Amino acid sequence: MAAGTWAAVLLLAGGGLLTGCSDSYNDKRGKGDAPVSGRAGDDTPAEVFNMPDGFGNLATKCVGHGFRAYVTTNASGPSNVQIVQDKACAG
Questions:
Q1: CA–CA dist 45, 34 (Å, integer)
Q2: Exposure check for the chain: N or C terminus, fewer CB within 10 A?
Q3: What is the DSSP letter of 60?
Q4: What is the pLDDT averaged over residues 27-35?
């Protein structure tokens, strides 16, 4: 490829990366949620279990039909997510 073509490819790739980093849906402290198509998501609150300082808190709620999600917080890395079958979440 010619140098001009490479420059154009790099410019487009860089612009795509910057667009992907947009903070249009992030709120303070990085706790914003990604946008939901048509704003038709389940906004019911989760049940939260607070752990002692130094340990991640745990949140749980039904997701979908017949499944429960468990999510932990983690200040120094990514959160942990586990989704399991739960008959109490049917319907």
A1: 17
A2: C
A3: E
A4: 61
